[in-house]
């Protein structure tokens, strides 16, 4: 007969994951043992093994649960009826809000996902691609100069860079709050995207001078020859 799960099984499992994430973030994955996780959770190793067979399973579930939380948050924001600029801002705000109290999980995602077996990594990478896809579509709609062209990926990943690393300097109650920062970073993207796209348009990439600079230089050369 299958063993019946306790009614608070999922709540306890999530508590284990959060505490384990804090330990992984503090001591590193290799520096954290099952014994340490059990002690930090106030349970025996035997009880911990009732939830997870090994440390690898704990790591995978930390990342899977964290990414699913992020996906749920941004997909809900994406369904809101709004103009493209407001929708992009709402996505950024939803992501930052989902990061609240999840700094440890976020650090573990950045540092430790690559430690999992390839098949487990691919499952998590697929979840990451869902997140990227939601933001890519929002940026394409909000920034016509970028659209679905070759600059969409670098523009999307640049936005993620501003959002994903904010935990290194962000302090609640000091300066901008999460909603303000979401407005700031999305405005940086939408307001500067057209000019940024023009800066790397064909003929100006790889250090080539913009057309205006070439025209000015040609005019100076002609004047010098006529002098």
TrEMBL record:
Keyword Nucleotide-binding belongs to the record: no
Residue ranges annotated for the HTH tetR-type domain, each copy included: 10-70
UniProt organism field: Rhodoplanes serenus
Protein keywords: DNA-binding, Transcription, Transcription regulation
Identification of the protein by name: TetR family transcriptional regulator
GO molecular function terms attached to this record: DNA-binding transcription factor activity; transcription cis-regulatory region binding
InterPro entries the UniProt entry points to: Homeodomain-like_sf, HTH-type_TetR-like_transc_reg, HTH_TetR, KstR2_TetR_C
Residue ranges for the DNA-binding region feature of this UniProt entry: 33-52
